[in-house]
Amino acid sequence: QVQLVESGGGLVQAGGSLRLSCAASRSIFSSATMAWYRQAPEKQRELVAFISSGGSTYYADSVKGRFTISRDNDKNTVLLQMNSLKPEDTAVYYCKSSTSLAWGQGTQVTVSS
After folding, report:
1. Which residues partner with 48 through β-bridges?
2. CA distance 97 to 104
3. Mapped to the 3 state alphabet, what secondary structure does the chain carry?
4. Span 90-96, mean pLDDT?
5. Spatial separation of the C-alpha atoms in residues 77 and 65, rounded to whole Å
6. Taking the CB of the first residue and of the last residue of the chain, which one, N or C, has fewer CB atoms within 10 A?
């Protein structure tokens, strides 16, 4: 069964940090590009960052220099370290595998000003 389980969200003040984690089923993790998306209220879901199976990374301009994506291939986990958080980072964050159509339940990140 394909699973993506996000965790680590919460409420933080502007300038603070959070670390998101996504545990994925091995079948959709090992050779996949893993990505983080986010969706703010009344906005479309947007790509935040991705990391290839080989470790190459991409970041949206809005998070470049503040967020870091990484993966632990032994634990089938993708992480998103978020620093210098801004109120506009408030959203539900989802992880996604390039080899599956499945989405997890997401984790809420709220940044207060």
Report:
1. none
2. 10
3. CCCEEEECCEEEECCCCEEEEEEECHHHCCCCCEEEEEECCCCCCEEEEEECCCCCEEECCCCCCCEEEEEECCCCEEEEEECCCCHHHCEEEEEEECCCCCCCCCEEEEEEC
4. 98
5. 22
6. N
